[in-house]
Amino acid sequence: MTTVVVTKKAGFACIAADTLATYGDMRESADLIANSDKLVRLGDSWLAPTGPASAQLVLRHFIASYEELPVLEDIDGIFDFLTQFQRALRDEYFVQGREDSGDDFESMRMELLVASPGGIFGAYPQRSVQEFTRFYAFGSGAEYAMGAMQASWETAVSAEELARIGVETAAKFDVGSGLPLSLRTIPQRGTAAEPQLFAHRFDADAGVDRRREFPPLGASVKGLQRGQDS
């Protein structure tokens, strides 16, 4: 169980996730688990899976097999990536691809949110892909996150603030989600923020850990739009 969100506002996209892991009735928080960050990088894009705890490991291992990384900046590009990923899930990672006897296609057994310079997207277990205009959430706390982001859309000054509100609200009410959260921001192509893409790539390549504690909801968010992943 988890909560992952994507947002887009003021020339930036943001992707965020809680850091709680659960094992049966046991809650494993970020102060106990070193690899609690649920976000996975693929070139200029970031992905946030839901599903089994091994989803991040499988994604990272699969992405590492590429000699030339795919570009996830539109629905067709993401679908192509998912088609290759599904083949690997079946043949290399031994995923049980059938969730229901009535399924038309094999399942990835996970959902994915994607934030890239081309926008924000969601992929479902049977590989359908949607592009979102403002925000979306997956996971056990998604309903709480969606409601909070809808209520805050007009007042939030940035994609980062909106994403933080979504995950923090989910963590407050959903037993399967917990803080601290991790997030990344990505400048969007075709906006005034596009020239900052180069700085974003350099910063991400430096391997900077962007997870941090955030101020309480309603606190000042001055200076949130800095043009780099956060």
Task: Explain what this protein looks like in three dimensions.
The C terminus is likely disordered. The protein has 5 helices and 11 strands. The strands form 3 sheets. It has a 5-stranded antiparallel β-sheet. A 4-stranded antiparallel β-sheet has the order 10-1-2-11, with helices on one face. The two termini are about 25 Å apart. Helix content is about 25%, strand content about 25%. By secondary structure, it is an alpha+beta fold.
Short descriptors:
230 residues, 4-stranded antiparallel beta sheet, alpha+beta, 5-stranded antiparallel beta sheet
* Distance, first to last CA: 24 Å
Cross-sheet strand order for the largest sheet: 5-6-7-8-9
User: What radius of gyration results from the CA coordinates?
Assistant: 17 Å
The secondary structure category is: alpha+beta
Please outline the major beta sheet.
Answer: 5 strands, antiparallel
The helix content is 25-40%
What portion of residues belong to β-strands? 15-25%
Number of separate helices: 5
Order of helices and strands: EEEEEEHHEEEEHHEH
Which assembly state applies to the chains in this document? single chain
Shape: globular
The average pLDDT value, as a whole number, equals 87
Which consecutive residue ranges, at least 5 long each, have pLDDT under 50?
205-230
* Strand segment tally: 11
What's the helix and strand layout?
Layout: E1 3-9, E2 12-18, E3 21-23, E4 26-28, E5 40-42, E6 45-50, H1 55-63, H2 75-91, E7 111-116, E8 119-123, E9 129-132, E10 135-139, H3 142-152, H4 159-173, E11 181-187, H5 197-205
Antiparallel strand pairs: 1-2, 1-10, 2-11, 3-4, 5-6, 6-7, 7-8, 8-9
